[in-house]
């Protein structure tokens, strides 16, 4: 699994960063998504998929 | 106007946990249908999950109107009653606002707030026990002792608003959100902005570690962000920060208590179930209002329906979250639902900025409540819980419980 985050599309809602803090963070100055681990380990795949589904901007994409 | 034959919002419903049955009928008629607003004007109601998502993510819908004086009016409340903002600059203004606020409500910030929310929750639960002791087993009210004070305590600390003023801003909130409030709603909105404006003035000389102080500091670098903008924004945050979460706590308690097997299942291991349970509470909680307001900024086709420039569009989250094409057995409370991709916080560029705050509060409150009072039960039938109809944010009057 590889995560692709489009920071130009992100609206900084941070729902991904609340759900999977090991994988997603937010920039301090504007809240835009930061992917901490673009290729998360299998035990986080379920949570990452959920984060992509609830992302309100469509900024997150998965390549599996 | 020829809108008299169309159903008029808000729709009737049986009790605080159900949505209006009319939504299901209207979803069968179409993803967008014609309705009459509480003010008597025509509007589109967006009923299906797919169409709700599409409208939310389409930036051709906004809160401003190309010709505001001709816009359909929604109600005589002082929020979501009609167009707001400047048609020419709305998108830019909104982006600026989000950029100002997003860091204050970020996931890391909310996580750091968790311990404090736990302390405040414990205090509310102590008050519940003290009230029950004082009343010698008579019911106590979850709304009065937990669902109202907890979100208010949290948002007060976050924004830098004195908790002692809660009766004052709770009164403003109540009055601005009444559909037929009229002149009183407008007066309350002016009083609300005068109140938060006064706080901003004080923070200009004495800033604190809070959001209103942050906004005051940012205002210094952006002269186009006026004192009134700041005051109205602070009032909006104060309103949204307590009304909405308060209602979800009250409805969450009702969902868990209206069927004791639900409660027992949750009590068996609250921490393991809380995240999914909170999502299901969010999905099912209905406000019974009009839905969120947008105006079409140009002619738009949504799910095969043509919307004309300037038309009012009411986005029915209550309906989308009960759409059988998106959720299996949508009217069943099922904390095991997976995935549970609901629209409770909206979607797209205007998605609720307090989503992480709300989730953080709700994830603390339910395990704490049911660890402290595992035998909690409703003192009245769900059908007898009095709703607050005719209000933008919905809600219930009281949730009497015993244990």
The largest β sheet of chain A comes out as: 2 strands, antiparallel
**Main β-sheet, spatial strand arrangement of chain B:** 1-2-8-5-3
Task: Output the structural class of chain B.
Answer: alpha+beta
The portion of residues forming beta strands of chain B comes to 5-15%
**Rg over alpha carbons of chain B:** 21 Å
Shape of chain B: globular
Head-to-tail CA distance between termini of chain A? 4 Å
What oligomerization state is this entry in? heterodimer
Low-confidence stretches of chain B: none
Number of strands of chain B: 10
Task: List how many beta strands of chain A DSSP finds.
Answer: 4
**Strand arrangement across the biggest beta sheet of chain A:** 1-4
- Strand and helix order of chain A: EHEEHE
Q: DSSP helix count of chain A?
A: 2
The termini of chain B sit apart by: 54 Å
Task: Report low-confidence residues of chain A grouped into runs of 5 or more.
Answer: none
Radius of gyration of chain A: 10 Å
Share of helix of chain A, binned = 10-25%
Strand content of chain A: 15-25%
- Output mean pLDDT of chain B: 96
Overview of this protein structure:
The complex is a heterodimer of chains A (64) and B (403). By secondary structure, chain A is α+β, with helices and mostly antiparallel strands. In chain A, 23% of the residues lie in helices and 22% in strands. Chain A contains two helices and four strands, in the order E-H-E-E-H-E. Chain A has helices spanning 15-19, 45-54; strands at 2-5, 24-26, 33-35, 60-63. In chain A, the strands form two sheets. A two-stranded antiparallel ribbon of chain A has the order 1-4. Chain A has a two-stranded antiparallel sheet with strand order 2-3. In chain A, strand 2 (24-26) and strand 3 form a beta hairpin. The longest helix of chain A has 10 residues, at 45-54. Chain B has 403 residues and is of the alpha+beta class. In chain B, 48% of the residues lie in helices and 8% in strands. In chain B, strands 1-2-8-5-3 form a five-stranded mixed beta sheet. A three-stranded antiparallel beta sheet of chain B has the order 4-10-9. In chain B, strands 6-7 form a two-stranded antiparallel sheet. In chain B, a hairpin with a 5-residue loop joins strand 1 and strand 2 (42-46). Chain B is globular. The model of chain B has no long low-confidence stretch (mean pLDDT 96). At the A-B interface, helix 1, strand 2 and helix 2 of A face helix 4 and helix 15 of B.
């Amino acid at each position: 699994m590889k995560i692709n985050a489009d920071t130009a599309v992100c609206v900084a809602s941070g729902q991904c960063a609340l759900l999977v803090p090991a994988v997603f963070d937010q920039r301090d100055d504007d809240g835009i998504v930061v992917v901490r681990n673009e290729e998360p380990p299998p035990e986080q795949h379920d949570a990452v998929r959920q984060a992509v589904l609830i992302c309100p901007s469509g900024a997150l994409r998965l390549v599996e | 106007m020829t809108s008299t034959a169309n159903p008029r919002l808000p729709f009737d419903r049986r009790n605080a946990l159900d949505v209006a049955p009319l939504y299901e009928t209207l979803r069968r008629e179409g993803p967008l249908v014609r309705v009459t607003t509480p003010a008597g004007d025509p509007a589109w109601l967006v009923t299906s999950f797919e169409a709700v998502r599409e409208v939310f993510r389409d930036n051709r819908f906004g809160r401003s109107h190309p010709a505001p004086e001709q816009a359909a009016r929604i109600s005589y409340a002082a929020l979501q009653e009609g167009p707001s903002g400047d048609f020419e600059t709305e998108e830019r203004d909104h982006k600026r606002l989000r950029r100002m606020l997003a860091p204050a409500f970020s996931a890391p910030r909310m996580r750091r707030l968790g311990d404090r929310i736990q302390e405040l929750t414990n205090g509310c639960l102590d008050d519940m026990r003290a009230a029950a002791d004082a009343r010698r087993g008579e019911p106590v009210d979850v709304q009065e002792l937990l669902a109202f004070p907890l979100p208010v305590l949290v948002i007060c600390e976050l924004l830098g608003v004195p908790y002692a003023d809660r009766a004052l801003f709770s009164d403003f909130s109540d009055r601005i959100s009444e559909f037929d409030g009229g002149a009183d709603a407008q007066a309350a909105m002016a009083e609300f902005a005068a109140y938060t404006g006064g706080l901003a003035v004080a923070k200009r000389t004495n800033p604190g570690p809070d959001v209103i102080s942050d906004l005051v500091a940012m205002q210094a670098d952006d002269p186009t962000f006026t004192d009134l903008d700041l005051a109205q924004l602070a009032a909006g945050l104060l309103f949204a920060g307590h009304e909405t979460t308060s209602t979800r706590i009250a409805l969450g308690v009702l969902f868990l208590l209206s069927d004791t097997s639900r409660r027992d299942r949750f009590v068996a291991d609250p921490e393991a179930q809380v995240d999914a349970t909170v999502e299901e509470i969010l999905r099912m909680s209905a406000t019974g209002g009009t839905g969120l307001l947008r105006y079409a900024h140009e002619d738009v086709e949504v799910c095969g329906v043509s919307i004309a420039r300037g038309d009012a569009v009411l986005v029915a989250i209550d309906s989308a979250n009960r759409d059988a094409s998106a959720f299996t057995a949508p009217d069943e409370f099922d904390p095991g639902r997976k995935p549970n991709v609901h629209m409770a916080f909206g979607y797209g560029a205007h998605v609720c900025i307090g989503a992480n705050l709300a989730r953080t509060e709700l994830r603390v409150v339910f395990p704490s409540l049911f660890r402290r009072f595992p035998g909690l039960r409703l003192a009245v039938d769900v059908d007898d819980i009095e709703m607050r109809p005719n209000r933008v944010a919905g809600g219930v009057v009281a949730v009497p419980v015993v244990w």
